[in-house]
## 1
Amino acid sequence: MIRNVLSIAGSDPSGGAGIQADLKAFSARGVYGMAVLTALTAQNTQGVTGVHLVPPPFVADQIDAVFADVRVDAVKIGMIANAAIAEAVAAALARALTAATANGRSIPVVLDPVMIAKGGAALLVPGAVDVLTLRLLPLATLLTPNLPEAAALLHQPVARNRSEMAAQAEQLRALGPAAVLVKGGHLDSDDSPDVLAVADGLHWFEAQRVPTKNTHGTGCTLSSALAAELAKGASAREAVAVAKDYLAGAVAASGSLTVGSGHGPVQHFHALWKDGA
């Protein structure tokens, strides 16, 4: 059975991040993708120049419409933008998850706390951080912050080493998510380790840095691949291993694309497109 996965996130018209990256990652990982828009952005590989927010009640209407008709096997949450949208998403999702539980189903939720775009533009207003923490974190099966995002959620300094990464992963898991993956790409080191905090402890995933500027949408792509694997029944640890391997291939093949002059996108379909076909 092909699984159905819903993304709740913002749009990137240049196609490298946001909803567009999510749908590409879903397709590449063999699941059927659906999308609820929280925001429209004007952006390209060089940065974000504008954001237009979707009214919170209409965000909730989109979520309700999908769940009223379609079997949802996993949810990925990306750009939330502000507190009102976070509240609307949390309320609509809580209704849907409660109904699923009553019918004997469990729907995994991957929360990627998108706060800052690759070019530095803010994608989450400061006042929304606490609402996201209090309302959405308890709904999450897997939280996937990078180092600055983890620090912002905890109101702490950014982790500088593995020990601090591990401590923050465990602190975030104590706030409600079943699992937390803290991504170490911002560490000042030659490698890029990630740490997964789950009920049975910590698990490290090692990776070498790829010398490329084509990293637009890597967080969106990873979290979407994680949602796809969880929808198929993988454990958090299994999903992270598969999704990281997929993302590594997508980054390594990004040079086959010629999209923009800034931070280019990854090649989501690296395993499917051969010789440009």
## 2
Amino acid sequence: MPGTTRRHAVLHRARPRVAVVSLSQGTRPDDLRRGLESVLAQQDVDLDVVCVGNGWEPTGLPDGVRALALPENVGIPAGRNAGAEAVEGDYVFFLDDDASVPSPTFLRDAIALFEHDPSLGLVQPQVVDPSGAANPTRWIPRIRKGRASDSSPVFSVWEGAVVLPMDVYRTVGGWGAPYFYAHEGIELAWRVWDAGRRTWYAGDLVAHHPAIDPARHREYYRLNARNRVWLARRNLPTVLQPLYVGSWAAIQVARWWRHPRRLATWFGGVREGWTTDCGPASTMGWLTIGRMTLAGRPPII
């Protein structure tokens, strides 16, 4: 970690400056436009909005949104990072191309949380399927789920709609580009904690997103396992790495013991995670581990 961020609020402005990054492959134009229009409708903030085309030239964007075309699909975290380099603001808001925010004061309300509590380094809202479908419990990133409307510190995030002070985003090094897909939200949350801040689930803020099974992605099980190992290798002290991976191996066996092919794919991903390059490590300190443990979740599960 480059260093611990000072616990002070971002300079208060009557109209906070918010950088917004929307990542898309151009496959959901209606959802993309809905999300961008929900951002442009935000009140009492100044916006700098970019749509990143991940292997796609963004077209047909609403006025007020710039396009950034990447020549190839570099993966979700690297694509978000590219967008963050193209915008400026006191805060940065990452919004997936199939997500939107229903309240025109969403960003101002999120910023109010940071202004009220400078210990916060990241905010994730409650996620709701606007069609009325059941909301997956995985959208509540805590072990004891409780009510979706309850707020609390958390140690992972659903990545589709998150807000950070820009200085915190820069300090933690952005999203973990090597992951390509899956678990980059856990690393981001861990590194916010390691920067001396807290990651916060705000049950009183709402983002919209359809309830879609993440296993729809063809390589979900392999990447899920590989990235679990990479997460440990990139962030945890050596002694904790096998404990973290072992705890998740036990959880997956308990979940999928009736699905041997799924387990075989998962353990193949584990092997890949131990034998391939995971990119640069930034081992969290024991003080951070202690803070996370006292807050409710040691980083071994």
## 3
Amino acid sequence: MKKILFPTDFSEVSKNAFIYALKLAESINAEIVTMHVYQLPQANYVNVSEYLHEIYDVTELSNFENYKDEVPVLRKIAEANNLTHIKISHVLILGNLVPEIKKITENENFDFVVMGTKGATGLKETFFGTIATKVMNDVKALVLAIPEHCKYHPIEKILFITQYKPEDTGSFVRVLSLSKIFKAHIDCLRVASPHHEVKDDTREDWKVLVENNEVTFHYIKGEDVEGIILNFIDLHKINLIAMHVYHRNFFEKIFEISLSKKLAFHINVPILAIHE
């Protein structure tokens, strides 16, 4: 059985993302482990030593109570979506979120990390939005980030953002495997500067891998990479974006895109980060 790690901060963003975790678990026959990571307070005032133990005990108890209260909420989400047959267990960990996610996924061989994320709002990026980009960059498991306004929709159309480089082949094969599970169409897209010379284009090699899968290869020239991709998502009714993690700068830009686009676009499609 495959394993999905679901980090949660008890927010509405996380609860929304949990539906995707459940649906993915059903599709790939996986169990879900929910995970909440908390930190102890930093005590900086004088004569604190005699109170430290009491402060830490109260903090740990509070986190345990919060998590214990959250479990029935997640169970209700499973019930509402007729997915109570999915095996779910829960972990509460003291530490820093990204290192703990990285450690548990490596030690326990998780296949996916599914987590909610918020983009930039006003002048600052929210905590979980920042965390999502770090997890995408650092964690070797497949990371599926669910934006806050993304409502669940069956995965029917996958956009694989690529440079058609040989090192993308492994990621492309993984996307092919997912497309078979979801019975989804794949659009492969490269966006390049009009002045950029195309090298190491693997499209012809990839066509051999495709067999009977529904895959369309696209190549668009333009300077506004993020804008072109967002237009493509909207035009082709994309349900899932997948990309190799060397696009890390794009991860950071995509969550801030609404600022530069004057709120004309909101990224509301799940993003799958793939490592080799």
## 4
Amino acid sequence: MPEPAAGAPALDETMLAMDVVDTIRHADRLVERELAGTDRQARLRERLREIYKSQGIEVADHVLDAGIAALEEQRFAYTPKGEGWRRSLAQAWATRGRWVRFALAGLGGIVVLWGVYHFTVVAPRQREAAAITRELQQDLPRALRAEHDRVLAGTQEAAVRADAARLLAEGEAAARAGNLAEARARRTALADLAARLAAAYSVRIVNRPGEPSAVWRVPAANPRARNYYLIVEAVDRDGRPVEVPVTSEEDGRTARVSRWGLRVPEAEFERVRRDKLADGIVDQPVIGQKAAGSLATTWTVQTTGGAILSW
């Protein structure tokens, strides 16, 4: 057997140094305690000598020093190469009991959150979108056609029937384009037109104590002029008020009212004023008739049709 090379440690000393490293590595408390000071190597050497002496083994100082140095240099530590993913997989499998619980808990939380979001946000939006689609494709076209037919059934006036046809075409086009607001507006306009055609009422001068029957106004555009109005109301055959759309000529505002000021010539204003002053009542209060099937009112007085909503 060949002799060891000059300067190389003997095999038994190398093995002993490895044993020293292994002893230190498996003595965690010893390492933590003895390596904490500035003279840690000297104190660690003494402790190691005591450990080996208790086992009946004499270890030279240079062997202990070699073991300590080897531990600090990680000389005898095993580092796997080329199998990192396999080692990680093995560690994951070995610790599966711990991380699987966390994974399942996290997955459960995600499922709960998704369920809450779905039922509080996604599902209502889907129902709303489905309702809008159904309204645009089915409900509105059917309602538009029904209101259009009501108008045609209620009048023979060509102008009114043409207006109804225009509203129907505009409403159907808006529904096809997905314009919900415009389609609804045309349906409302057709319903209002049908209701106005069906209404029948009389227009009479207000003739009650303490309430004016006629007023005059100074227009803002011409302070030298006066505009004259009869205060009138629409009532059905039983005397109940009927609301009709009236547009003010002073500010252009339109409102549904049962009472308004109807503009008349000064002569008509004076006739009514003198009539009421004579005995406190207006002898012929009814001055207009609106028949079903027509939008026009037949007047028994001269009027421009202008109106005011306040006085």
